[in-house]
């Protein structure tokens, strides 16, 4: 068995000549091959369910059978077990799999295996020395083809391949990522988190890449606070890359102008950035100061670049349908067109930002520095046991929420004529504090008592939802005023009035929701945690 370590990047077709002439690849001419691959699975896709892939490759006269295990992809750097051998013909065989149990399982499935999809591409391959490492750089140009279940062979569907793969043959991850950063400095490369196999299965199942939510914390956390942060950072980065890739694919699809990408792509990308920035703050005591400062600033700038598009999408898709019926048909149609135009403009700006090589370099830099941090292990200058940090982090996050709640309760109770709207900044700060606490509970949940965590979540969710609606109203009013031709624009004034009314209603209910948090204590660590 070998372990494959590789990074996949999508390349704009217009940049192919620049890649082929790139100085970093000019030491020797590339090896040119044409590779035809067929992927097999059972009729019920049992291998997909187990995240395995079986491939028969035709490389000239050679035939290679490859079994790939489940991939771990810390931040986009894929690692997976791989068993590959040359075979005399086109018949599958698993005699080369040196894991007896897996070999038996695959052999038992052999009679049921059938072609599911294929890939056919030309490959340029270079071997590059970088630092102490040997890296294979492969450029693949071709297609994936599948006949979806229930269709005739003549109804195949296809998807183009135009990507660069960097595989670490020998050496260090850091050298591979340094080479990727150097290539991305002059080429329009984008993170490509989906493998050819994943894309092939999507074609076969007639699925489009959809928005991806970050899964809650794992059931196991390492003892080191730094290791726990790195694991979480990798998950956030992978989630961001997948939503960005899905968004850019949707923007490039036919009809994207009339049917813009699902708002959830941008939303989940921003959530991934927000979670990562919260983790930087929560784990700061265990991380190098320069690392925290660099990535807090860079990630904040990237999140800010996504905000206008998210604002217009919330207004156009979530808020607008709630009051559209209140407007006369002509007025409603005119306002809908204005909102759609603003959304298209904002999405085009976001597309340019996310497709910019600078964004790829940022994510590669974050991946590289985080992998370096993870490699330190116990040699970190700030070794800190995770349970120790968890106590500190959760107590501090709870106290921040309690302070914000106490201040609002005091101010509202002491006002002669309570006007919650006067404390908009304090409401916003409470919302941010609640999100930080929620993210802390998510990442540290395996260490905390389940009952305590669930109690806090049950009490926080209604308040977080109300504060989110309050924020959406405030942002919607700001955006609509910017859209107005005059201070009392008849097109936007009714919408602004509706949002003002919703804001007033939320302010009347929020003080009662605050009371639900009184008497709660910070979640405790499980008894098994030291």
Automatic annotation (TrEMBL):
Residues 2-207 form the CYTH domain. GO terms for molecular function: inorganic triphosphate phosphatase activity; metal ion binding. Residues 222-530 form the CHAD domain. It comes from the Bacteria. Pfam families: CHAD, CYTH. This is Inorganic triphosphatase. It comes from Oryzomicrobium terrae.
């Amino acid at each position: 068995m070998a372990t494959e370590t590789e990074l996949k990047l999508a390349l704009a077709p217009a940049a192919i000549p620049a890649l082929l002439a790139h100085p970093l690849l000019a030491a020797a001419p590339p090896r040119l091959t044409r590779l035809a691959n067929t992927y097999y699975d059972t009729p019920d896709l049992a291998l997909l369910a187990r995240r395995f892939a079986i491939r028969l490759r035709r490389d000239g006269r050679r035939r290679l059978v490859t079994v790939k295990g489940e991939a771990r992809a810390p931040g986009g750097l894929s690692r997976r077990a791989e068993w590959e051998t040359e075979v005399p013909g086109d018949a599958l065989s698993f005699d080369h799999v040196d894991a007896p149990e897996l070999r038996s399982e695959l052999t038992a499935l052999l009679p049921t295996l059938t072609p599911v999809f294929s890939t056919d591409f030309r490959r340029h391959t270079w071997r590059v020395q970088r630092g102490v490492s040997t890296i294979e750089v492969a450029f693949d140009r071709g297609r994936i083809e599948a006949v979806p279940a229930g269709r005739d062979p003549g109804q195949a569907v296809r998807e183009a391949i135009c990507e660069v793969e960097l595989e670490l043959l020998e050496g260090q991850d850091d050298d591979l990522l340094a080479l990727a950063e150097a290539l991305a400095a002059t080429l329009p490369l984008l993170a490509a988190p989906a493998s050819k196999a994943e894309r092939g299965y999507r074609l076969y199942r007639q699925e489009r890449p959809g928005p991806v939510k970050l899964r809650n914390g794992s059931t196991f956390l390492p003892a080191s606070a730094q290791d726990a942060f790195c694991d979480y950072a990798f998950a956030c980065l992978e989630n961001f890359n997948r939503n960005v890739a899905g968004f850019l694919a949707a923007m490039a699809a036919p009809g994207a102008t009339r049917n813009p990408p699902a708002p959830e792509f941008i939303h989940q990308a921003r959530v991934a950035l927000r979670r990562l920035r919260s983790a930087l703050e929560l784990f700061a005591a265990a991380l190098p100061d320069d690392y925290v400062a660099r990535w807090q600033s860079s990630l904040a700038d990237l999140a800010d670049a996504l905000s206008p598009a998210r604002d217009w999408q919330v207004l156009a898709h979530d808020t607008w349908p709630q009051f559209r019926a209140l407007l006369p048909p002509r007025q409603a149609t005119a306002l809908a067109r204005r909102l759609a135009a603003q959304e298209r403009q904002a999405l085009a700006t976001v597309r340019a930002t996310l497709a910019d090589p600078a964004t790829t370099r940022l994510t590669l830099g974050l991946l590289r520095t985080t992998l370096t941090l993870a490699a330190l292990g116990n040699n970190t200058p700030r070794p800190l046991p995770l349970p120790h940090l968890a106590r500190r982090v959760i107590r501090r996050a709870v106290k921040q929420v309690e302070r914000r709640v106490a201040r609002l309760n005091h101010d509202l109770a002491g006002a002669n004529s309570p006007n919650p709207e006067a404390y908009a900044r304090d409401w916003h700060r409470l919302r941010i504090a609640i999100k930080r606490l929620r993210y802390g509970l998510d990442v540290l949940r395996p260490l905390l008592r389940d009952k305590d965590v669930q109690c806090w979540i049950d009490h926080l969710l209604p308040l977080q939802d109300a504060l989110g609606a309050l924020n959406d109203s405030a942002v919607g009013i700001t955006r609509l005023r910017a859209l107005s031709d005059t201070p009392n624009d008849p097109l936007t004034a009714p919408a602004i009035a509706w949002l003002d009314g919703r804001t007033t209603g939320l302010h009347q209910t929020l003080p009662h929701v605050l009371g639900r948090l009184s008497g709660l204590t910070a979640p405790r660590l499980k008894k098994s945690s030291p």
